[in-house]
Amino acid sequence: MQIGFIGLGKMGSRMVGKLINDGHDVVVWNRSTESVEIIKKEFKNIKISSSVKELVSSLSKPCIVWTMLPAGEATEVIISEIALYVSDQDIIIDGANENFNNTNRHAKFLAEKNIKFLGIGVSGGIIAAQDGYPLMVGGDINAYNYIKPILDTLANPNGGHKYFGIGGAGHYVKMIHNAIEYGYMQSIGEGFEVLQKSDYNLDLIEVAKMYQRGTLISGFMMDRTVEALEKDPKLEQITGEIGSASGETVWAIEEAKRMDVQLEIIKASLEYRKRSMIDKKIQQSFTGRLVSSLRNVFGGHDVKNK
Predict the structure, then answer these.
(1) Hey, which end of the chain has fewer CB within 10 Å, N or C?
(2) pTM
(3) Rounded to the nearest 10 degrees, what angle do helices 220-231 and 169-197 cross at?
């Protein structure tokens, strides 16, 4: 298929590469030229647009335009601009970690213009370019059915895609995924700190590899734990400053409060991350360092070196 793609960050550039490698016709635009120059070196025949308007005008009908920008203002601005140039039955896709309320609003706004809209939660981190992206879809079901060849490529070989409902349903599912992720990573960090401080002088890499072998906590995040520890077995190179709080987890807590649902573990893990920015004890802890390292190996998030 032909697709216009806006946003060549850590996730976006890898998604574009995956689409090109599978034979899709991809036209890109990015606000900064640095990312464009990098991707041009790898894909000589990639089509580069000089503006959003040029990108849309270069696409055959119905246009498909996928945005992969930070949630909030950046996404708001770009969707508003794309809406100026697309026409009846064209498709706009927002792959950001956007607030589902904003996605609902965008869907309604674009439906009034007969523009089809999808909000797609994209998971899997930077390694999903090889393993396959898990794609949580909400919005116009006809648009979803139309772009399935694109989603099939992105999901290959071990990812997947699923339509969950109208408006912000896909981003809602992704929001809860990220909130669960907080609690899971926190538990891994805390458990491994106990192991690290025990009297048994345990080889934590071998412990993590054992946990991979069919245990109830085996899977993606334990694989990343092995990867993080093999990279720096004692996590001596970084501090436990975990980074800014995720918008999705904050929104999940707000939504749970509205429903009178208790999120004790998720709330505690969010508060721990906030405190890690100022609390020296957390910054020096194995828990904080492991959580920070996990974010780096699966998502390419920055860590603070000692």
Answers:
(1) C
(2) 0.95
(3) 50
- Please tell me the CATH code under which domain 175-299 is placed: 1.10.1040.10
| DSSP assignment letter at 216 | T
Nearest-CA neighbor of 169 among 197, 144, 200, 147?
144
> What is the DSSP secondary-structure string of 73-125?
HHHHHHHHHHHHH--TT-EEEE-S---HHHHHHHHHHHHTTT-EEEEEEE-SG
- Catalogue the active-site residues: 174, 181
CA–CA distance, 200 with 202 (Å, rounded to integer): 5
Please check whether residue 116 is in contact with residue 93, taking contact to mean a CB–CB distance below 8 angstroms: no
Determine the Cα–Cα distance for residues 94 and 224; give it in Å rounded to an integer.
27
- List pLDDT tens digits, range 271-287: 999 999 999 999 999 99
Q: Which residue has the tokens 């993080």?
A: 228
Domain boundaries, the chain: 2-167, 175-299
Question: pLDDT at position 246, please?
Answer: 66
What gap in Å lies between CA 230 and CA 290, rounded to an integer?
12
Tokens of 176: 């809860």
Amino acid making up residue 238: I
Task: Give SS3 for 25.
Answer: strand
Alpha-carbon distances of 29 from 20, 34, 193, 249, rounded to whole Å = 15, 12, 44, 30
Q: Half-sphere exposure (CA, 13 Å, Cβ side) for 122? A: 30
Task: Tell me the C-alpha distance between 5 and 80, whole Å.
Answer: 15
Residue that has been written with the tokens 């408006």 in this structure: 167
In 3-state terms, what secondary structure has residue 45? coil
Place of tokens 């898990």: 134
Give the pLDDT confidence of 111-158 residue by residue, as tens digits: 999 999 999 999 999 999 999 999 999 999 999 999 999 999 999 999
Classify domain 2-167 by CATH number. Answer: 3.40.50.720
**Token reading at 28:** 């890109």
Helix (H) or strand (E) holding 201: none
